[in-house]
Design brief:
single chain; about 290 residues; alpha/beta; eight-stranded mixed β-sheet; two-stranded parallel ribbon; 10 strands
Length: about 290
Amino acid sequence: MSEFSTFEYASGGDPRQRLDVFVPEPAGDLRTAVLVLHGGAFRHGDRTDVHARCRALSARGFTAIAVGYRLLDSAAWPAQLDDARTALRWTHEHADELGVDIGRIAVQGHSAGAQLALLVAGTTSNGEDEVGGDATHFPAPAAVVAYYPPSEMSLTPGPEALPAKHLLGPDTTAEVAAQASPINHIDEHFPPTVLVHGAVDRFMPRVHSLRLYDALASAQVVGELHLIAGQDHEFDMTPRYADGSTQLVVDFLRAQVVEPDRVTKEVAEANPFVSMPPPGAGPAAG
């Protein structure tokens, strides 16, 4: 028997529009799904690239779903975003069959996949159902996990923005580039988000996650930022860093999606500073 089950999430028969579902052991099942989107600059890679990440999540009680999507060699942008959104809708529609609570479906992405994860969350939570050419409403993910994500696409790229033409084509406009930029979709409705980034990433500088974290904080969205010292792009392919970063993500998802009330109670009971007023808020001295 295979360790995962494969399904087509879209009609049309494109082999990339499939997903692999890794089911946890019943005793530890958290009834929580995580869709995992691979990287590859939208030109390379497939869903098997994230199988190891899915196994790690499944071993910790999550229903992990490796999502394939069309690449630029066969479908122009925003087909990739369409596919990610369709995979999320498929998961919602099949939540009962998967044994998943419909309110506990998160999205995780790596590099280009992180851009998709953030855009899926931003466009659904903001009600921008036309983004990606898909006008059907469906719920936003309960949380986002973004490993070394890009924050912005630009016609005039620099350290804080990627060249939009590589993804969007030579005739793209500033408006389309802005729409494909995750940082422009973060507002108070954005779901809880954890960002994980190598501190010396040469391919996606850490400033992208720093900017995204600042945007989350400004919008008063629950967010975490983890910079992994001395590590480059795709650092989590190394077993020791895979285990550590996966645990960071699991702790975040348990706190924000799986058992938030229990975690809040635990913090209130264990941390004496939670009940104290902030500095300067007490009675004036004198």
